[in-house]
Write a structure and sequence with these properties.
mainly beta
Length: 126
């Protein structure tokens, strides 16, 4: 599968300050990852530290917080990793799921999908 970038808008929780940025779509990353300096400039607080496994098997700890993200005009609060400076911004799987988006790798774009509520489906009666 190829990789591609999408433009997102990142803001503080209150929707008062925003910055646009290009992010690499990375379905192999759990959370979206943005430069810590950008998140701090927007006033996004870190609320916990989380361990992550890197592609090479190393384990690292990073601050994680919650922030507002806009993709194609839709806005949601998502978890975000405070990345080291110089790290490429990544759009991770949890953000894609929150926005009900999937990846079209051939056309290199994000595609809306329906949410699933399978537990609410009625069981057939016998």
């Amino acid at each position: 599968m190829g990789t591609f970038q999408v433009n997102i808008v990142v803001g503080d929780l209150y929707g008062e300050r925003y910055e646009a940025m290009d992010t690499l779509v990375d379905t192999g990353s759990t959370y979206s990852t943005l430069p810590g300096s950008v998140l701090r400039r927007l006033g996004v607080p870190a609320d916990r530290q989380v361990e992550f496994e890197l592609a090479d098997g190393r384990i690292v700890k990073h601050d994680v917080g919650q922030t507002r993200v806009r993709i194609d005009g839709q806005s949601n609060i998502v978890p975000v990793v405070f990345a080291d400076e110089g790290s490429e911004p990544l759009l991770g799987a949890v953000t894609l799921e929150i926005f009900l988006l999937t990846v079209d790798p051939v056309r290199q774009r994000l595609v809306p999908v329906r949410g699933l509520l399978m537990a609410l489906a009625r069981k057939p009666t016998v």
